[in-house]
Amino acid sequence: MKIERTFNVEPSIPKELKDLEIIGNNIWFSWHPDAINLFHRLDPDLWEKVSHNPVAMLGSLDQSIFDERKTDEGYLMQLERVKNDFDRYTGFKTSYNFNIDEPIDFSIAYFSAEFGLSDCLPIYSGGLGILSGDHLKSASDLRVPLTGVGLLYQQGYFRQYLNADGWQQETYPENDFSALPVKLLRDEKGDPLYNMVKILSRDVFFKIWKVEVGRISLYLLDTNTHRNSAADREITSQLYGGDSEMRIKQEILLGIGGTRALDMLDIHPSVYHMNEGHSAFAVLERINLAMKKFGLNFNEAKEMVIYSNVFTTHTPVPAGVDRFETELVVRYFQDYVQEIGISIEDLLSYGRINPSNKKEPFCMLAIAMKFSAFRNAVSKLHTQISKNMWAEIWPRFPREDTPIDGVTNGIHIPSWISTDMGSLYDRYLGRRWMEDPDNERVWDRINSIPDSEIWRTHERRRERLVGFARRRLLQQLKKRGASNSYIEKSVEALNPEALTIGFARRFATYKRGNLIFKDPERIARILQNHDRPVQIIFSGKAHPRDNEGKKIIKDIIHFLKEEPFRSHVVFIEDYDINVARYMVQGVDLWLNTPRRPEEACGTSGMKATANGAINMSILDGWWDEAYNFDNGWAIGKGEEYTDLELQDEVESRAIYTLLEEEVVPLFYRKGADNIPKDWVKLMKKSLISLCKYFNTHRMVEDYLLKYYYPAAKHYDVFLKNPEANKEIADWKDFIKGGWNSIRLQKMNTSQNGNSIEINNPYTVEARIDLGDIKPEDLQVDIYYGKLNHRAELITRDVCPMELQKKMEGSIYSYKGLVCPKKTGKFGYLIRILPKHPLLFDIYSLNLVHWF
Q1: How, if at all, do strands 168-171 and 146-151 pair?
Q2: Residue 592's beta-bridge partner residues?
Q3: Which are the contacts of 368, defined by CB distance < 8 A and separation ≥ 6?
């Protein structure tokens, strides 16, 4: 029997301690150690039991503890100090100007299917969610005017446990929203605030919850309400749960519902940032709102929207992108397309790589790419991969010119740093390591930290990791029903003084979690060296439907059941933010073994780096651009293989050789003071070279300067002059209609022969018949570069051609000067592109002539 009339029972907190509620209801507490300590001091065991959740803790504490603390002067002084810090932080909301020459008033909406903000808010699955959470935290620190939009899942992502055979099992505990740091928005009558989306002609209602992330607000949508059918209440049940039909419902809710929620709340962002394709339907609802507000048609409203959308792709393989069969899209959007004034075939074409291929499924990435003037991948290598993967969206352009840019991911360093290491940084770097982590001068001061202090600090964290791992292992074995003798032997695993390797991430097959066991005998010799022992701590989940990933976990469990692995290898179940924090803060070496180039970026190694760990990784994702031969170790030299078995053989041997010849000797080469000076030197080089760049403060500033600010400026133009939308839409129709009438009549050069001396210009002249198009509507360039032996361009430069004069009819003459800076064989083409003062994205029309 369902009961719909409900009420909340709240804790009776003394007035002296009321500030705990204010602090605990803002995720700010999670990256401020003094705030965390306030709750930990109340009841350390309960703090762990409630997954570091202040709201749940305050609701579970015995009243006697409140009574005790309200007269504890030391505790009250700490509470007052933390509350003052909180008030100063949240009260200072003036937007940072980022040295922008022409500041404008604008805001950003940031859409993501998951947000990993804290272990007490389990609405994330892995790297994408953690990045989204860190993005919001840095935006808050930097005072960027950003609002988050996502879904509030009743069950969130699954919890993991392993059976006796090592096979992953999943449970889906329910989230109790009343015990989470989320607030239900209500109307003036005190009733829940509702909005709705239509799904298969049904009105599906959703509530809106608010999460405070420092100065940033995150709004989460929830369909679990009595106003919906039982099926529709399940839409926000699980993160990435269900089939394609459930996924399209969630993405309609996130994109269309999220946009409506912002409008209802009177939040009108200039810029929409879609983090992956899950929210791509937001582009349609933005157009819908613009049509209604400004009296525009679809094409006119599209111009207003497209130049203020930012899209970030995180997938390095086509299989990782959401695709929906045509029939499914038709069923779910046949009514909606009528509302926005396009045909269902128009919508389907927007979601196809090749619009004319009617057999191609609807691709969320394709519509997001086509409706965003700003598109980026998440590392330098991933940018090149993405250009190759999605070049067919712009088939008239060379793959190298595919309009996808790159912003390399980072981490929110204060969220991942250990309290011990943070205190050390405070003493020697000053507070700027936390407030201004992308400042190079801050990290250069790492060398001022005495070797003994940084090493002892790191050793304390390793000891705490080993203690944590042993406690978790004991719990795991008891749950599996292991024998007492097996438990006694296993809980003695790990040595707090041994070289500790960490491997923790999603257990997808391409990440090769079991690669280090390719040669069991060789790795066994490395691990059980009596004088120089090595140990490995694993953690991570496989997707519930990824049986191959589950098999990798099972293989590891089978290894560590036997000697010599049992005392040297541990697998920590149910990987989450808390486990990740212990691991990145305590390991000595962070291991990463993806198949290049299938790691888009990866950020776990960045978290380990900030805590003094050293990376050993395949040259993939972020490590491909971070590794400088002097700040860690590279497995291989960036090779890519077609024979995967050969790849595993070669790269596993490379791991063993690095461990035997470099890593282990360096770690155990200690002086009279028992400190490994050379290892500490490498730690410092890693910290200095990596932390200043691979952080989300730098990342958010990149987004702001490269995308948010330019997008906001273009939106401002259209907002102040709605006629501009009609102007550019009509112009595009005109250009499309006359484009094929452009013809090259004649091209020649003024040189005698076909050679020039370096630094001398090479002159190109052309007569072009423009048909119905005017010269001011075109950009004519010489597209040139050095050639290889196959007559292919290996470098690319562009030199504009100047209009000389009008010839007869619609024929015009153009002239350009090419001045190569190197010797060799060069080649060139004439490239013609559409041009208009309001056309920011020259690729959006997918029109180009090559002559």
Answers
A1: unpaired
A2: 617
A3: 274, 277, 280, 283, 309, 311
Check whether residue 649 and residue 760 sit in a common domain: no
Range of the structural domain that residue 647 is part of: 454-676
Q: Residue 292: enclosing H or E segment and its boundaries?
A: helix 282-294
Residue type, 732: K
- For the segment 493-513, what is each residue's pLDDT rounded down to a tens digit? 899 999 999 999 999 999 999
Digit-coded pLDDT (tens) for 710-723: 999 999 999 888 88
**Alpha helix locations (H) across 354-450?**
364-370, 380-389, 413-416, 419-429, 432-435, 440-444
Both 604 and 575 in one domain: the answer is yes
Q: How far is CA 221 from CA 130, 154, 194, 571, 749, in A?
A: 19, 11, 10, 35, 63
Question: Is residue 77 located within the same domain as residue 181?
Answer: no
Same domain (yes/no): 342, 469? no
Q: What is the pLDDT of residues 252-275, one digit of tens each?
A: 999 999 999 999 999 999 999 999
Among the candidates 91, 123, 141, a domain finishes at 91
851 DSSP assignment? -
CB atoms within 10 A of CB 776: 10
In a domain, 436, yes or no: no
Residue 696 lies in a domain: no
Which of 340, 372, 406 is the last residue before a domain boundary?
Answer: 406
Residue 389 CB contacts under 8 Å (≥ 6 apart), including other chains = 316, 317, 318
pLDDT of residue 317: 87
Asked whether residue 185 falls in the same domain as residue 70, the answer is no
The domain total for the chain is 4
Place of tokens 């032997």: 489
Q: What is the pLDDT of residue 2?
A: 64
- Strand, helix or coil for residue 212: strand
Rounded to whole angstroms, how far apart are CA atoms 86 and 434?
Answer: 15
The rounded radius of gyration (Å) of the Cα atoms in the chain is 29
DSSP for 791-837, please give it: S-BSS-EEEEPEEEEE-STTEEEEEEEE--SS-S-EEEEEEEEE--T
Domain for residue 698, yes or no? no
506 and 359 co-located in one domain: no
Residue 533 falls inside a structural domain: yes
pTM: 0.95
CATH number, domain containing residue 462: 3.40.50.2000
Which pLDDT does position 351 carry in this prediction?
A: 97
Alpha helices in 430-490 (DSSP H): 432-435, 440-444, 451-480, 484-490
Regions of the chain short of the pLDDT cut 70 = 1-10, 95-96, 752-753
- Determine contact, residues 34/49, Cβ cutoff 8 Å: no
Q: 715, 271 in Cβ contact below 8 A? A: yes
CB distance 215 to 148 below 8 Å: no
- Residue 237 corresponds to which tokens in the numbers above? 């049940």
pLDDT at 298: 96
